[in-house]
């Protein structure tokens, strides 16, 4: 489990295409500290499994295999060598939940629609797949490229977020422009509530007709 609090901006340093998958090498000296084969690291909000830790003279990087399904259903397929990525290690047991519960399972992709600069923050409008709109509410939580954010305004096919200078400086949202894709993960609690309410309604309907 992750919290959506980005630990560092990493960089894609190599991509090896393997037919139905790709192997990424990602530079990230903070998240690789103490990491080993089989550990999880979130890359732009996608939970990936570490294959190798590679030490070099300048910094440490890790490799991770990304299957075609993940490449097709997330924005990872649009990454290239030199792309900056948000990195986060799983939350340690007993650690602080600084953001919200993030699984690292992307529900869909959106795109930056526009950005409006204010004096101390920036309002960013992001497109939203229609099937995800029911999970997004004003003042609720959403994960954008692995960043835990609070929804300012929620529409049928978009939402807006307000970004403080720290988020702009320390994550990829500081440089993404209109048209750039982003990974979206809605609040898993909303999914559970929907499922539980659906079951309750189904039970009540069955009892009413019996």
UniProtKB/TrEMBL annotation:
UniProt EC number: 2.5.1.9
Reactions listed under catalytic activity: 2 6,7-dimethyl-8-(1-D-ribityl)lumazine + H(+) = 5-amino-6-(D-ribitylamino)uracil + riboflavin
Keyword Repeat: yes
UniProt keyword Membrane, yes or no: no
MF terms (GO), sorted A to Z: riboflavin synthase activity
Alphabetized InterPro entries for the sequence: ATP_synth_asu-like_sf (IPR023366), Lumazine-bd (IPR001783), Lumazine-bd_dom (IPR026017), Riboflavin_synthase-like_b-brl (IPR017938)
Pathway linked to the protein: Cofactor biosynthesis; riboflavin biosynthesis; riboflavin from 2-hydroxy-3-oxobutyl phosphate and 5-amino-6-(D-ribitylamino)uracil: step 2/2
Renumbered ranges of Lumazine-binding repeats: 1-100, 101-197
Subunit structure: Homotrimer.
PANTHER family: RIBOFLAVIN SYNTHASE, RIBOFLAVIN SYNTHASE ALPHA CHAIN
Name of the protein in its database record: Riboflavin synthase
Species per Swiss-Prot/TrEMBL record: Streptomyces violaceusniger
């Amino acid at each position: 489990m992750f919290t959506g609090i980005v630990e560092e901006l990493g960089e894609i340093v190599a991509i090896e295409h393997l037919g139905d998958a790709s192997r990424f090498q990602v530079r990230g000296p903070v998240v690789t500290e103490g990491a080993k084969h089989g550990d999880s690291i979130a890359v732009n909000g996608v939970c990936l499994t570490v294959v190798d830790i590679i030490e070099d003279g300048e910094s440490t990087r890790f490799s991770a295999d990304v299957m075609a399904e993940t490449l097709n259903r997330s924005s990872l397929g649009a990454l290239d060598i030199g792309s900056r990525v948000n990195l986060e290690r799983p939350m340690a047991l007993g650690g602080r939940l600084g953001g919200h519960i993030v699984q690292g399972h992307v529900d869909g992709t959106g795109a930056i629609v526009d950005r409006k600069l204010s004096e101390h923050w920036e309002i960013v409008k992001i497109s939203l797949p229609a099937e995800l709109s029911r999970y997004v509410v004003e003042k609720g939580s959403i994960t954008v490229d692995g960043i835990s954010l609070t929804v300012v305004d929620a529409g049928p096919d978009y939402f807006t977020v307000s970004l403080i200078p720290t988020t702009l400086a320390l994550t990829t949202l500081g440089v993404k422009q209109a048209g750039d894709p982003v990974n979206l993960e809605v609040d898993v609690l909303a999914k559970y509530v929907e499922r539980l309410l659906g079951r309750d309604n189904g039970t009540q309907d069955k009892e009413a007709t019996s």
